[in-house]
Amino acid sequence: MSINLSLKDLIEFERPLTRVVKQSITIENPHDKPVAFKVKTTAPKLYCVRPNSDVIRPKDTIEVQIMLQAQREEPPLDVKCRDKFLILSTLIDQDLEKMGVTEMWNQVESNDKYKKHIHQHKLRCVYIESKEAEAATTTAPAAAAAAAPVTHHLTSLTPATTAPATADTNAADKPHNDQEDVIEKMKAMERELNKYKKAEKLELKTGFPSGIYILISLMIAAIAYFVTRK
After folding, report:
1. What does the UniProt keyword field contain (predicted)?
2. Does the predicted model carry a pTM greater than 0.85?
3. DSSP β-bridge partners for residue 61
4. What is the Cα–Cα distance from 82 to 42, expressed in whole angstroms?
5. Pairing mode, strands 119-128 and 10-14
């Protein structure tokens, strides 16, 4: 005959596991006779169970505390816990009720008369995320979605912030053009000086006044200057 448990198939232990994690199970005796129970685990060094065995009076309940000992390092999120619990229960008669709990279970598990009436209930252990971590995981996509429109608006403002750079570039080209004009004028003056030198040499050879050549050269230089200004 079975007992009623507050947990069905799983015992959940909330992370972080680097601290002592407590869980409880309520065991109910729905019968009109006393029921003895005993808790076993596949990892007795990791868990502390209080009480691990006792007698429940008819129509009564008892709460069992299960404590997972603190681990040195936090297990990875994808690790699967392989620990299990087995809860044994059986109805007891007056002879067994007179015994202590330890002696009674030794008698029940070794005597076929009682052994065949033992009921077993298995529970598997699982690690779950803390409520804070789960809430953070849930709100992260919403926060990212809310930030997306802001990025869009900032992107749309980018051309406006870069427009003055074009004007600055045009302004930078202007001194460059003026420099080219000065260079051209200097070259023109150099050409005129060469003409003066040639005129002096011609006067020496032909005896023709060099002033005429100078006057003609000045007129040509003036015309070249005004053409360059335009």
Report:
1. Membrane, Transmembrane, Transmembrane helix
2. no
3. 28
4. 9
5. parallel
Biggest CA–CA distance in the chain, Å, is 160
Query: Does residue 41 carry a pLDDT above 90?
Result: yes
What is the torsional sign of CA 131, 136, 138, 142?
positive
Strands of 42-108, DSSP E: 47-50, 53-56, 61-68, 84-91
Q: In what order do the strands lie in the sheet with 61-68?
A: 4-5, 21-28, 61-68, 47-50
CATH of domain 4-128: 2.60.40.10
Give the residue extent of every domain in the chain. Answer: 4-128, 181-229
* Structure-token pair, residue 223: 């015309």
- Residue 61 burial (C-beta neighbours within 10 Å; 0-12, 13-18, 19+): middle
- What is the C-alpha to C-alpha distance for residues 26 and 87, in angstroms, rounded to an integer? 12
Distance from C-alpha of 69 to C-alpha of 107, rounded to nearest angstrom? 31
User: Starting from the edge strand earliest in sequence, which strands make up the sheet with 35-41, in order?
Assistant: 10-14, 119-128, 84-91, 35-41, 53-56
Residue 119 has pLDDT above 90, yes or no: yes
State the Cα torsion 93-95-100-105 to the nearest 10°. -60
Rounded to a whole number of angstroms, the distance between the first and last alpha carbons of the chain is 116
- Reading the block at residue 139, the tokens are 């709100």
Residue 126 near residue 78, CB atoms below 8 Å = no
